[in-house]
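Extended Data, panel c. Modelled sequence:
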Amino acid sequence: MRLKKLPAAFFETAGGNQPVREWLHTLDAKDRRLIGYDIATAEFAWPVGMPLCRSLGAGLWEIRSNISSGRIARIIFAVVDEQMVLLHGFVKKTRKTPKKDLDLALNRKNEMTS
């Protein structure tokens, strides 16, 4: 049995919400499965480079998933206490990761580590 090198955990707000889990539930089962497979690949094979994972700077990383209808999903995470903490997920609509998505993930990371 292979052990996860970097187990994933969902970021949880002070109110107990898990935004990435909630976002995943808005997607259809096929897309959730594709994203879940990519998260699992990163968990077992960490550190993973392109095309699956890429550093965004400031301690943030992204998991890059190709989902149905030619769309691209991103999960932004940080490594905290030897865990991959899933901070933010979204379907990418532009070439560059939007600043609001990066800022949201960074704020969540800072909330956890402060």
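The helical segments are 19-24, 29-45, 99-113. This feature is highlighted in the accompanying rendering.
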